[in-house]
Amino acid sequence: MATLVFMPKLGTPVEEGVIRKWLVKEGERVARYQPIAEIAFAKVDSEVVAPATGVLLKHCYPQGANVAVGKPIALIGDEGEPIPEAC
Q: Could you give the CA distance from residue 19 to residue 58 in angstroms, rounded to a whole number?
């Protein structure tokens, strides 16, 4: 079953972040806790790590996109797995 990756809340009052750079391309394998994206919130930069091992099936947003905290930003699962509409 696919695992959604969400835009994290970093403890700041900011309610959205920017996906600065995807570190993993769609279709590439990822390991749990591997950084998959660089994100920015106001003056705070951080990385999003994979919550599961598998294949990065889809980026839900392109680089440079503003994304609300708690929204899905990527989908990790098994190769060839159907992509749900949540992303």
A: 14
